[in-house]
# Entry
Amino acid sequence: MASNYKMPRLNIFLEHIYEGAAQQDISLEKMLCFAHKAGYGGLECDLSRLSDRSETKKLFDCCGLSVSSVYNFFDFGHEAFEISKDKIFAHLETAAFFGAQTVLAVAGFIHNGDNFDAVRGRMAEALSFMCETAEKYGITVTLEDFDDTAAPFSDSDGLLWFMENVPKLRFTFDTGNFAYSLENAEDAYLKLRRYVHHVHLKDRSWDSLRADSDNTNGKADLSGKIMYPCEAGGGFIGIERIVKKLISDGYKGSFSVEHFGAADQLGYMRRSAENIRKIFEEK
# Structure
């Protein structure tokens, strides 16, 4: 490894901390400390978890973790713009309070009977306003490949439309979500790489042994084949190739491990960190 190479920061989703704490029957603080000990330095946070700003930040600081990115769900295509504006300001102000320089906006979904172009256009207008406003906070707004056909940004073509029509918008590359749309993640990355600002390291497995006790954590891709959450580097996505390609292409940001629905969040978190840090070291 080159002597001037700085290992990227590894983040974990705050929701996984909550899920893991419940699975292990331990406190949130203890689970946060486990995450830090496993090698995570940052958190990917749902805005709804950050309402008690001061106490939450104290807890994160105590456990040696900072907020990397804050995400929130919107309905830009249907709700009144004034309502969207209030939500945008709340999102950005909270992210700024925690020192996050990136936010993810899940802009909304297409409903049955919608005029697709009109709804997508309203999403783009709201995102444009959000991007302009975010600059004042020193924050970059991103959109991800969300794994739902009702999202007009679920595949690479849909995302490219938003990137080209909202000039300051950038891309959070979720490595596992293109599999839902039956796209190869590496091909999609090549199409969108100039817009990549943030990365979610999500892997997928076809192994039914990854199912949780209720068998509710599987997700069907568009062909109907069931995918299960797994540790980053343990599935079929090709995480090692993707991470090495991102770094060789000059990506300087952090990487956020994601495995919603993991049957064993603590175990997956530890294995993900081990796998990804090994890739970083081999770089």
Q: What stands out?
A: The longest helix spans residues 116-135. The first strand starts at residue 10 and ends at 13.
